[in-house]
Amino acid sequence: MVSHHVNRVVFGVEAAVLVGVLNRPQAWPSFRFQSSEILLALNGIAVWKVVLESVSSNRGANLIAQSVTKECRLQSYVAPKYGPIKEKTPLGRRTKKETGILEEVVERKQTIMGSAPAQIPTSFGHELRACLRCRLVKTYDQFRDAGCENCPFFKMEEDHERIVEVTTPNFNGIISVMDPSRSWAARWLRIGKFAPGCYTLAVSEPLPEEMQHLCQEERVQYVLPKRM
To answer: 22 and 84, same structural domain?
Structure first.
């Protein structure tokens, strides 16, 4: 597992409360986020980008969360004792470097946020099921109401009997993935191109042959599960 030392985090948000989620005590060896906190934070994010920056004057991490407020001013927030807070800079006085960063932020947002996250299971009991193709984990009721975000061609929300055909309650382990395209675990599990959400590590049975043929007709990849 690769560990990165994050020195600077740049955000473009409308809600300044995100700063409270990002700023952590200096004694913490790393910035760790609880899944519930980051999910709530992401709901308020308009655009965002992570920038790695070395700070020679401070051996510790210099965490800065920048937000674009409704007054159209660039503001910087920093955790206590992490270094000086930068001056607020009006949009009209931004440097070319700052403007370039914001353009990259918008581009990053369009790339990642373009893939809407899948529903998060409302319960983690016996009602959980996993899609046999993409291994997305949701409750039976969620599959019935919204289908599978990665496999809309199954049309589970229209044909409720198909839920039993293409999902299973027999699976091993659950992993929550916020950014599948950048997660080494997601790539290893072959879910890097799917929507952010909860996935199982492995299902215990293959798709029915009829559904495998449907995947071929839709020109989507299906990989048979490995024997456990």
So the answer is: yes
